[in-house]
Amino acid sequence: MTEAVEEQSIFEWIWGVVEGDFNENPTVGQIIANTLLTSIPLVDQAGDARDLAANIKALAWDKRYNEYMVWLAFFFTLIGLVPSLGSLLKGVLKLLWKGAKMDEVLRYMNAMGKGNAVKWLKELQAGKLKQYGKDAATNAKQVIDVCVDMLSKIKDSCPMWLTEFHQNFADLIKTLKIIRSQVDEMLGKITAELEQKLDDLLKQNVDNTAQGSSKSTLMVKQEADPSVKPREGSHLYKKQHKDGYEKDPYTLQPDGKPLGAKVGKMPSEAYGIDKMPKELLNKADEGYPSSLVARKEFRNFSDIKPVELPEGTKIYRVVDEGSAEISQGKSGTYWAYSLPESKSQWRSQYAVKDSWNDNGYYVEYEVPKGQTLKVWEGKTAGQEYRSVDNSEFYLEGGNTQLYVEFGTLGKLEPKLTNWSDVSQ
Question: Is the pTM of this model over 0.85?
Answer without folding.
Answer: no
